[in-house]
Amino acid sequence: MPRDFEELDYRQTPFGDLVLRRRRVAALEGLEVYEVKLGDDFLMSSLFHAVEDALADLGLNALEPGEWDVVVGGLGLGYTAAAALAHPGVRSLAVVEAPQPVIEWHRRGLVPLGARLSGDPRCRFVHGDFFGLAESEEGFDPDRPGRRFDAVLLDIDHSPRNVLADSNAGFYEERGLRALAAHLLPGGVFALWSDDPPDEPFLGTLRRVFPESAAHVVRFPNPLLGRDSASTVYVARTPR
């Protein structure tokens, strides 16, 4: 008989206590839900991944047709990475994740998408700090320093103003975005998930770096609240 609540893994990390748990939601006919917490923050739930799917779709649909090399910032439960790999144009995918246990969950099959991502030859897990790599000249591929990519899809912080660590905040300023843009090819795309409504001051900063920039509101059903919820996906492109 499956348990109604189970803690699948608990780790103490430099970022805080990291917990992977699985529970059944009685109000949703016993639906099995996977959740990740970091300290007091709920990072993600398998109950809600429409925006992760939209992040990949909106970002990659903005590219010119061809074969693409893509970076995903934040592995989590793997929904952004899986949605990216569903695009046949994706030739390679580097998924950058700071807490090593999250990568282990996927390799061990503790999360629903783990086997799919680990078994896809296009997909590679990179253990590292996305924000530090974005700021560096070497970039996101430790085997090919200076390599540039067709797209970077970012899903780590709650929003540009609600960050998981104070050290992340500088990334969302003009200096940080310019450093990120240097890792993109001409016509390359940067897409960002945010749990907040469109932020006009941030969009203005984004447009100073990426002249082609827009904010998309993504609505999705929230069965726990009995109504729709909404998040934002920013999509920006470098000059071609």
Briefly, what is this?
With about 240 residues, the protein is of the alpha/beta class. The protein folds into 2 domains: about 5-45, no CATH class; about 50-235, 3-Layer(aba) Sandwich (Rossmann fold).
Describe it.
35% of the residues are buried. It is built from seven helices and eleven strands. Helix content is 24%, strand content 38%. It has 240 residues and is of the alpha/beta class. The protein is globular, with a radius of gyration of 17 Å. The strands form two sheets. Strands 7-6-5-8-9-11-10 form a seven-stranded mixed sheet. The protein has a four-stranded antiparallel sheet with strand order 1-2-3-4, with no helix packed on it. The model has no long low-confidence stretch (mean pLDDT 94). It has two domains: 5-43, no CATH class; 48-237, Rossmann fold (3-Layer(aba) Sandwich). Helix 1 (50-61) runs parallel beside helix 2 and helix 6 (174-181) packs across helix 7.
Question: Secondary-structure map with pairings?
Answer:
Blueprint: E1 5-13, E2 16-25, E3 31-38, E4 41-45, H1 50-61, E5 68-73, H2 79-85, E6 90-97, H3 100-108, H4 114-118, E7 123-127, H5 130-135, E8 149-154, H6 174-181, E9 184-194, H7 200-209, E10 212-222, E11 227-237
Parallel strand pairs: 5-6, 5-8, 6-7, 8-9
Antiparallel strand pairs: 1-2, 2-3, 3-4, 9-11, 10-11
